[in-house]
Amino acid sequence: MKNKIALLYGPVGGNTERVAKLIAKKIGAEKSVLIPVKDANKDSLSEFKSLIIGGSTIGTHTWSHKNTSSDWDQFMPTFKTIDFTGKKVAIFGLGDQLAYTNNFVDDMRTFYNVLIENGATVIGQWPTEGYEFNESAAIVDGKFVGLPLNEDHEEELSEGRIESWLNTFVSQL
Questions:
Q1: Helices and strands (DSSP H and E) totals, the chain
Q2: How many other CB atoms are there within 10 angstroms of residue 2's CB atom?
Q3: Alpha carbons 154 and 106: distance in angstroms, whole number
Q4: Which CATH number fits domain 5-172: 3.40.50.1370, 2.40.50.140, 3.40.50.360, 3.40.50.720?
Q5: Where are the alpha helices (DSSP H) in 40-154?
Q6: Where are the domains of the chain?
Q7: What pLDDT, in 10s, does the model give residues 113-154?
Q8: 53 DSSP assignment
Q9: Which ranges constitute the DSSP H helices of 83-149?
Q10: With bands split at pLDDT 50, 70 and 90, how would you rate the model's confidence at 173?
């Protein structure tokens, strides 16, 4: 498994899972393993040298009375204890740059901060050009810390962006 790329994503269902599966398909089943964050644990991630991590900044967990927290909310205490030293990690995030123009893909920064603090080499930064938003916590040194996708209003751009993004780093993994 160490030679495969772990694709850790959440929540299950909806756009985030669809994007994670598309990324896995583009990388190839022989090179990647999909891991829903709700099924992840510290040991299952420790065997991978490379990971791609994704989630959504705003999702149904935000407004559903049936689900008080997201899969990432539940996993985050464990995620913060993982030693990522020597691991290369890329991040993708889903957000709505029109409805949440002041918080576009902010959760990517949450992942980034934990990864950097815990020794990861974060790869796959992405330019801000081509997006319209007011603010995003996910920008470091003028670039997004990973790939932002807007499945609500720009779904037709996602596949091309994913291909271009993967081409910038997959050969390094």
A1: 6, 9
A2: 9
A3: 18
A4: 3.40.50.360
A5: 42-46, 60-63, 71-79, 107-117
A6: 5-172
A7: 999 999 999 999 999 999 988 899 999 999 999 999 988 888
A8: E
A9: 107-117
A10: confident
Starting at the earlier edge strand, list the strands of the sheet with 126-127: 126-127, 143-144, 139-140
- CA distance linking residue 131 with residue 173, whole number of Å: 27
H/E element, 165: helix 155-169
Judged against a pLDDT cut of 90, whether residue 29 lies above it is answered with no
- The one-letter amino acid at 6: A
CA–CA gap between residue 140 and residue 29 (Å, rounded)? 31
Which position has the token pair 């801000």?
128
> Which carries the bigger pLDDT value, residue 91 or residue 173?
91
- Please list, in sequence order, all residues whose beta carbon lies within 8 angstroms of the beta carbon of residue 163, skipping any fewer than 6 positions away: 26
